[in-house]
Design goal:
Length: 158
Amino acid sequence: MRVLSASGFIADPRDNVMSSKYRKLLANLRNIIDAALGETELQRKWYAKARAEAEAVLTAAGIDWDKTDAMAREELTITAIPGRTRVGSSTLQSIVRGTGSLETDFLNGEIVLLGRLHGMATPVNSALCKLSVELASGRMRPQSAGDDTIVSMIGGTG
């Protein structure tokens, strides 16, 4: 642990590692949003909706998550690497590379599954999973979706 910490890695032992993993899951719900929506304000809007939906599902499922933001805001810093262009989230990187599959089913899809298991609707995360299929297949260009795209996939109003 000391070697990792001295090298700049966060290496703190956790009594309940699953609560940290669920915090990470909640943060990663934004990956498909970054890949689909180009506009920052729309990204914030839909991430807030996806996260609120996910938090309600996790609560209904009796799953606890680490509610601190310390790691996201204070401990982690994304910096430019000289000579490299940052493409965006791992989901956007997969689209750009043309992998044909995305991690969305394991992130937002986990929330959809937990919602089904606990009798809760998950329209936002379900729509984001549908959106990932369009992006992975190449039927939609990265960061080209608008508010109306997600609203139509939900089948209601945004």
